[in-house]
Amino acid sequence: ALVDGEFPSTKLELMGQYLYFFGIDNPIVSVDENNNSLTENEISNYPNPFTEKTYITFRINENSKVTLEIFNLNGQLIKTLIDNEVKSGTHKIIWNGKNVNNKSVPSGVYFYKLKTNSYQKTGKLVYIE
User: Fold this and answer.
1) Kindly report the CA angle at 94 between 90 and 95, in degrees rounded to 5?
2) DSSP conformational letter for 115
3) What pTM, to 2 d.p., does this model score?
4) According to DSSP H, which parts of 41-109 are helical?
5) Taking CA 92 as the corner, what is the angle to CA 87 and CA 94, rounded to the nearest 5 degrees?
C-alpha cells in the first residue's frame, strides 16, 4: 500500500480535495481519497469536442501505477499526462491540446489511453483549434 510522501509530486488540499502537481508543465490531478467503496474502474472526458481544454476524469478501485497518454490517429504518442503511482479514488486531469513540446496540436481526432495494474481503456478526443 502507498503511504503519504511516496508520490513524486506536490500535494495541496483545497476545499476537501487533494491536488497533485506532477511537474511544472503537467496538468493538475484532483483526488477524492474519501471514496473507499469503489467497485468499478472508469474513464471519460468533457467537453468533447473541445477547443481550449478537456477534463479527463477517471476512477480506479485500487492504488496502482497509472499511465495516461494521448495519441494521434497514426498511433504516435503526443503527450504523457500521468506516469506515476496513484491512490484509488476519482481523479481529474486537464489536457490543453498541447504536445510534449508544449506546442498546440492541429485540429483532429486523438485518443487517450489509461493503463493501471489491472485495467486498460482507450477513448476518443476531438480537438478543434
Assistant:
1) 135
2) E
3) 0.72
4) none
5) 130
Contact of 30 with 17, CB cutoff 8 Å: yes
Residue 38, pLDDT score: 46
Over range 23-42, report the average pLDDT. Answer: 52
Sequence-separated (6 or more) residues with CB below 8 Å from residue 74: none
pLDDT tens by residue, 54-105: 999 998 888 999 999 999 999 999 999 999 999 988 899 999 999 999 999 9
**Residue carrying C-alpha cell 476545499:** 15
Q: Exposure string (b/e) for 6-39, b if CB count within 10 Å is 16 or more?
A: ebebeeeeeeeebbbebeeebbebbbbeeeeeee
pLDDT at 34: 52
For residues 75 and 65, what is the distance between their CA atoms, to the nearest angstrom? 22
